[in-house]
Amino acid sequence: MLPKKKQKQFNLFFFLFFLAHFFFNLFSLSLPMLKVEVEQKVFVCPGTLQKVLEPTSTHESEHQSGAWCKDPLQAGDRIYVMPWIPYRTDTLTEYASWEDYVAARHTTTYRLPNRVDGTGFVVYDGAVFYNKERTRNIVKYDLRTRIKSGETVINTANYHDTSPYRWGGKTDIDLAVDENGLWVIYATEGNNGRLVVSQLNPYTLRFEGTWETGYDKRSASNAFMVCGVLYVLRSVYVDDDSEAAGNRVDYAFNTNANREEPVSLAFPNPYQFVSSVDYNPRDNQLYVWNNYFVVRYSLEFGPPDPSAGPATSPPLSTTTTVRPTPLTSTASPAATTPLRRAPLTTHPVGAINQLGPDLPPATAPAPSTRRPPAPNLHVSPELFCEPREVRRVQWPATQQGMLVERPCPKGTRGIASFQCLPALGLWNPRGPDLSNCTSPWVNQVAQKIKSGENAANIASELARHTRGSIYAGDVSSSVKLMEQLLDILDAQLQALRPIERESAGKNYNKMHKRERTCKDYIKAVVETVDNLLRPEALESWKDMNATEQVHTATMLLDVLEEGAFLLADNVREPARFLAAKQNVVLEVTVLNTEGNLGKLVSTPSSTNLHDGWPHCQ
């Protein structure tokens, strides 16, 4: 969504036609982490949440989506605001009070060292915590010194629109604060896309506890923490066809008791586009951004105290600290016959990393390249997968349950892997994983990017390379290279901005060159995407593991979208740009909304699109 008061409107039409098998259930095994019991409660728990009152302190913003909050460890009235602008969210604004915010009198702004994904930021004890764009990383930025003071990664978290909240906005990773401290809310493939909550030490950025829940994250509108209890909101959105779901806090998970708890609380939703919900343990209120409006909700609490008493269910007992290699098949390593499918989670709902208070935090070791079968499989040593040649790689006889690695096919670089499934000694029917197999030109293009050569020229070279035979690693690497090129292009375009002290002729030439460079870049990117989606590339997509497929497809869409926004920022209005290929059509229309717009119609032809791809509009 774009700001309704912005002077430009962008209409982007993407006709990307991916393989249907990209979006199936992913399976991976989660690593039990270690926990240290740390008592850092600052505020007294007000009790169990019983009612959400009508919103107050309403103010209309220029942005439909965003987040705002207070620092609960600061006693003043300062508030922090961060509107969400696709691919442009990198500034936090501080206001001395609510009155100053309404009057648009900011105290200062903070230009963050990275762009931000989603609306999940929080401010806690003088630092802002946020999800770094296109990563699983949580960044801590000190507002007093204006430097990044820490960064950590959630190794298993879905990110960048893989498991966002219902409204989208790349809200995969959401931070929260409550009486117990700092929390991070996300989803993992190991938990089948359901909500996971971890407690994060705000000073060391170490994880102190992790709990898995049974609530699908994509079904949630937002979530927040109170007294160690995760509350999940499901609300109606504008033009939503599922209004019967209503507006309610309809799920709760108590991390203190390690259990789900029944809840059904009405949530007033006057504007019907909730993009963020943050709880402040100092004033026990919710800070919400709802369809251009920033609002505040008072809450009512009552007994019992959810943080009182020991856990009613014992923590999961485990002794391993080695992460198993994720399987790319749909069969479980615990299956005893090839016909039985195991659950998609390796442990029950609840805590997954509580091994006792006497153990220090630990960093998980790197995944093992060969994974022995689980002890309960009763593997017969004589069961092997037979040697065979698949995808121009010779695979030796391999014991069931083992992952074997071999050099990639001749003419490529990297290591390929193939799983001998832990049932009857059969090779993974999806074939080997060639995700790391790349052509030599990938490294050549990467070196040119590092040297800072012209982004449009490098994009053209990438388009030329992808016209020929490509491997699985070439597909994912091409998307990553285009992502890097965006940052280089953005910096190069900044150097072509008009300067007031220069002549009008020179500034005109700069503007013309900026527009031409941007268009050349987009044309090359569209050609590259078309090359990656042609039917001849189908086998290369199949050679990726499931997680890499989904991530690469998502990033490909993001690269196109961000490039289109960059083009719209650098062309004279009104303007219309159309790049049509056999497998992708991209149109960018830039309008000046100050005059009469008339009716905007875009009908890019799809008749030339390859019939082998499913048509999506």
UniProtKB/TrEMBL annotation:
Primary location group: secreted
Regions of compositional bias (Low complexity) in chain numbering: 308-346
Domain of life assignment: Eukaryota
GO cellular component: extracellular space; membrane
Span of domain G-protein coupled receptors family 2 profile: 382-441
TM segment ranges: 12-34
Keywords for this protein: Disulfide bond, Membrane, Receptor, Secreted, Transmembrane, Transmembrane helix
Region Disordered, annotated ranges: 305-376
Comp. bias regions, Pro residues: 358-375
Key word Chloroplast present: no
SMART domains reported for this sequence: HormR, OLF
GO terms for MF: G protein-coupled receptor activity
Disulfide bonds listed in the record: 45-227
Compartments reported by the entry: Secreted
Domain Olfactomedin-like, residue spans: 44-303
Keyword Secreted attached: yes
Gene3D superfamilies: 1.25.40.610, 2.60.220.50, GPCR, family 2, extracellular hormone receptor domain (4.10.1240.10)
Family annotation (PANTHER family): ADHESION G PROTEIN-COUPLED RECEPTOR L1-RELATED, OLFACTOMEDIN-RELATED
Protein name: Adhesion G protein-coupled receptor L1
Lineage per the UniProt record: Eukaryota, Metazoa, Chordata, Craniata, Vertebrata
